[in-house]
């Protein structure tokens, strides 16, 4: 294996990549599914390699502890069943939020591989306190799992779930950019760009981070 290749584990949701080190080259099968332990619990992933270093990862949010083993055929089948669980779970999470008349938008739901924990991602008005205890308790009963309710901002949503920019490429924040840029309307004006939201706003609804790249050049 080339010394320039970097290896990582791509977790099953949201293109998260955690780097791995201290491996023996002959024991690594790139592209193989694996079962790993992270600081969140037991998860399913795939060994990936990069010739030019890592893309932007969420390793600051999810830390890899160890690779438990290569995935078996049964593990692969279970992974498919978890995807089906998440689809149904999303519908349930939305329905329950509506029943409680919660001012939230459910974005996605993620089960860990052992299904002991479900992470529900949602959007809500910033700065508004919400009491989600009853909602969380009911989801825990419905899913027979520990519930982790995670509020995300517009930029977090774009970073987590990705998308395509007007340039035709994957979003910077979802592929390589570690931190969002500090961008102002003044930067767009100084570059002679229209300040129309349709031309200067990213999929998150905020000013595009790339406006900062050419500023001052």
UniProtKB/TrEMBL annotation:
Matches recorded under NCBIfam families: RicT_YaaT_fam
InterPro entries named among the record's database cross-references: PSP1-like, PSP1_C
Source organism (scientific name): candidate division WOR-1 bacterium RIFCSPHIGHO2_01_FULL_53_15
Name of this protein: PSP1 C-terminal domain-containing protein
Domain PSP1 C-terminal: 65-152
GO annotation, cellular component aspect: cytoplasm
Pfam families the record matches: PSP1 (PF04468)
């Amino acid at each position: 294996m080339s010394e320039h290749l970097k290896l990582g584990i791509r977790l099953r949701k949201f293109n998260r990549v955690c780097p791995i080190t201290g491996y023996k080259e002959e024991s690594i099968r790139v592209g193989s599914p694996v079962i790993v332990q992270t600081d969140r619990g037991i998860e399913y992933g795939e060994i990936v390699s990069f010739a030019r270093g890592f893309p932007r990862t969420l390793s600051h949010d999810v830390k890899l502890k160890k690779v438990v083993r290569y995935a078996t055929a049964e593990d692969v089948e279970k992974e498919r069943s978890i995807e089906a669980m998440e689809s149904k779970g999303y519908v349930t999470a939305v329905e329950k939020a509506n029943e409680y008349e919660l001012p939230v938008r459910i974005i996605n739901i993620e089960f860990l591989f052992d299904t002991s924990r479900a992470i529900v991602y949602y959007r809500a008005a910033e700065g508004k306190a919400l009491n989600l205890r009853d909602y969380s308790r009911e989801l825990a009963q419905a899913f027979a799992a520990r519930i982790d309710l995670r509020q995300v901002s517009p930029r977090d949503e774009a970073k987590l779930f990705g998308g395509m920019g007007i340039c035709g490429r994957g979003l910077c924040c979802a592929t390589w950019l570690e931190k969002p840029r500090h961008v102002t309307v003044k930067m767009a004006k100084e570059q002679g760009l229209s300040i129309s939201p349709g031309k200067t706003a990213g999929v998150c609804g905020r000013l595009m981070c790339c406006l900062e790249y050419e500023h001052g050049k």
